[in-house]
Amino acid sequence: MKSKIWLSSPHMSGTELNYIHQAFDSNWIAPLGPNVDLFEEKIQNFLGNNHYASVLSSGTAAIHLALIILGVKKGDEVICQSKTFSASANPIIYQGAIPIFIDSEEDTWNLCPELLEKAIKDSIAKGKKPKAIIAVHLYGMPYKVKEISAIAENYQIPIIEDSAEALGSSYHNQKCGTFGDIGILSFNGNKIITTSGGGALITKEKSVKEKAVFLATQARDKGIAYLHSSIGYNYRMSNVLAGIGVGQMDVLKERVHSRRHNFQFYKSHLSDIDDLFFLPEPENNFSNRWLSCILTKSKQQKEDIIELLSIENIESRPLWKPMHQQPVFKDYPCYLNGVSDNLFERGICLPSGSNLSENDLLRVISAIKQYYHV
Ligand SMILES: *Cc1c(COP(=O)(O)O)cnc(C)c1O
């Protein structure tokens, strides 16, 4: 059996263990401590523009806290990109709110501005303005920031920028994670850098960071007594795991470089095949190419190639199944144009880890070439 090629596996730099040892040596085995502070500082320095980061137990927890901080309550409506991972949408349900799913446009595969505006107008006409918009930079490709921000601004609806897949991406030279009223990062094991599990909430306002940390640490009011005047959560990141994050931040730029290289390598070897399409980077967009995706000609081709790769012990996956197609979300309102259904039908995520060797990439390429007889 040939060795397994994973879709997107963790890639340590080697320095992470030093920070973990420091946590052990100083006995900061807790959801606070020097690594937590240092990790936040490194994220802030990377993002620039005076943003604050609060590191949390997951990206999902960050989205949940963002909704709470923006005042989303039971029965409120929240707009969410349909083509995404379910973690973008699940926290809407945690709050008892109602998701409204919006389809994608073809240039970035993200939130379609026209449908977004239509949904907002319809909601307002019914006397209920959506409380927030969850916009996603799918696979690291920035959404149409200018258009989406203008709509949000016009109707005065805050944006939760789900940048879980887009750390290291940028738009007009500004880093993803810094465009929304609140930004979200994920450090899950499959993401561009990882703490095994973790996330962050990004904000321009110090008070929002303080609120996030307060809610993430059981909402204990100031003072020595355990006084609680709001419901809290246990969402803070462990100081041990933050040590992994500190070591990972030091190699983030290299990781982005490797992922972009994977995409270019696949493209240069496969773009002669007429049945395959690679999403170009629109002008002024810089994608971290978290996952290298291809579109095939048909559902059949997609299924055949995933199967063929699996026989070669190569992990690949369809693109995210849109939320409006999910059994758990299918009865919620949605605004569709066919784009995300079509992407799901034809798209494949190829192995994309920053730790793949050229030989690994060539194994993937040769299996696909074999399928197309080229
Ligand atoms: C991974 C991911 C999340 C959730 O992050 P976790 O850290 O796994 O909770 C949210 N949104 C998107 C688009 C993701 O890919």
From TrEMBL:
The keyword Transferase applies. One of its GO terms (molecular function) is transaminase activity. GO terms for biological process: polysaccharide biosynthetic process. Keywords: Aminotransferase, Pyridoxal phosphate, Transferase. The modification N6-(pyridoxal phosphate)lysine is found at K191. The keyword Transferase applies. It comes from the Bacteria. Signal peptide: none annotated. Pfam families: DegT_DnrJ_EryC1. PANTHER family: DTDP-4-AMINO-4,6-DIDEOXYGALACTOSE TRANSAMINASE, TRANSAMINASE. Belongs to the DegT/DnrJ/EryC1 family. This is Aminotransferase class I/II-fold pyridoxal phosphate-dependent enzyme. It comes from Paucihalobacter ruber.
